[in-house]
MARVEL domain-containing protein (Poecilia mexicana), 296 residues
Amino acid sequence: MKLVGLYDPRTLCIQPSGFIFAICAFATCGGYHGYLQVKVDCSARRPNNLSINIEFGYPFRLQQIHFKAPLCDASREEVIFLNGDFSAAAQFFVTVGVLAFLYSFFATIVYVFYQNKYLKNNRGPLVDFLVTVTFSLMWLLSSCCWAKSLTDIKAATNPTEVLLLIASCREKENRCATTQEPFWSRLNTSTVFGFLNAILWSGNIWFVFKETGWYKTERLYSESSFDQPDDGFGPFRQDSFTESRGNYDKQLERQASINQSQVNFSLPETYLGKAVIYERENKVASQGPAIFVNEM
């Protein structure tokens, strides 16, 4: 057994952090329980200062959460329901977290113990790449939906809005107050973990893509196209350079022959006059043609 996957960045960091963040995301959302307490003080009723406890939690079907509030003008109580159903976004967020946790755990086992089968026929990296892209989109979509639903849940359970649902609190002579408000830090943390998972899985796409045949084929093609000019640089460029140099020499020889044919060799212009013969006594005996040379 070859433990190649132990040196894979996905095995060392990304996948363990993937299922840890997934656990934090769906645990902080799915295990939440909120508690709200209000007090109603009826001026014309004894005893007064009645406390009302309101509990809610996952999957946040608030329209099913009800509580009883006293009617100050009568000796009876009314049943009041909260507003809103936010179970779809909450369940979608938790489902994505659970599935991401299971897949991360399963993928880590495959990377460590079944690396050869994972890389066989390129099916493992291809499936892993498609699943990673799918989870990236699902994490982003579910986190956005859950963040919007969390804002609506806070508005629906706002103590001011809850007190307005009670008929006795809408009367000016009665006094109503909030004694305890729900804590939202846990749900806020779940939203943060949701977006962290979206970023983590989006960055994980690159590591999975490097294992696919698409990346390897593209890399081989780029390397071959880059090496091709280097292979042809030596002989091809050398032959072309020699050939061009030979053509240049031939052109020089042809130009020299043309210039040589165009050169005109001309003698100095001469003039033949009458010849003069001198005797010993410096007398002219006979005259012959005289030669006069004109300098060019």
Notes: The first strand starts at residue 33 and ends at 41. Strands lie at 33-41, 50-57, 66-70, 77-81, 175-180, 270-272, 277-278, 284-286, 291-293. Helices lie at 9-30, 87-113, 115-119, 123-156, 159-165, 185-209, 213-231, 234-261. The chain is about 55% helix and 15% strand.
